[in-house]
Amino acid sequence: MTAAAISSGAAISPTISSGEYERPAVDGAALAGPVPAGAALGLASVDRGAGLAALMPWFLLYGVGGGLLVPLTATILGQLPADREGVASGVLNVSREVFGLFGVTVLGAILSTRRSGELRAGADQLSAFLSAYQFTLVVVAAIVAVGVPVSLFALRTRRATRPAATDRTANTDAVPEPVG
Fold it and tell me: Which of 115, 1, 113, 126 is nearest to 52 (CA)?
């Protein structure tokens, strides 16, 4: 049921995101980060005794946020010449895998450390795990809250600068390079 909620959210979101994968899609994808972060905060707020119905809206929201990131891949690949798309796709997938592994490792260490601290403080196993898990979800949301403005800054469009005036007397024998 959990997989169905996340999958349906991921299936729905590309239909509501931009059909044209150009610059607005990049900005939309960068802004899609708060959606899964909001889902993480929502999951962190679910209490120990809550049922499946309390979790499903957050899983659906998480799936929608993940699906909104799909246009980013198409945008990245669409910016390159056709003969470079294979390399770009490989680099993009490897970076996702490496940083995904890095994120799981760091967040796993945070969760484990927090859980150990809770157990030392006298909490039972389940309460210690849930407390550590909720804390880790808040850390994830904080990382996304920092990452979104950084992404928007890094993805901003740059205005073309005027080329500097050239000295026409220097090197008049040079052959100009073809454009295009």
Answer: 1
- Whether pLDDT at 66 is above 80: no
Res. 133: pLDDT tops 50:
yes
pTM (predicted TM-score): 0.63
Cα–Cα distance measured from residue 9 to residue 28, given in angstroms and rounded to the nearest whole number: 16
Cβ neighbour number for residue 119 with a 10 Å cutoff = 15
Give the Cβ contact number of residue 1 at 10 Å: 8
CA atoms within 13 A on the CB side of 81: 3
Contact in structure between 50 and 96 (CB atoms under 8 Å): no
pLDDT in tens, 67-87: 777 667 777 777 778 888 888
Residue 164 domain flag: no
pLDDT at 28: 57
Look at the chain and report how many structural domains it folds into: 1
Range of the domain at 71: 2-154
Q: Angle, nearest 10°, between helix axes 52-68 and 2-16?
A: 40
What single-letter amino acid sits at 79? Q
Radius of gyration of the chain (CA): 23
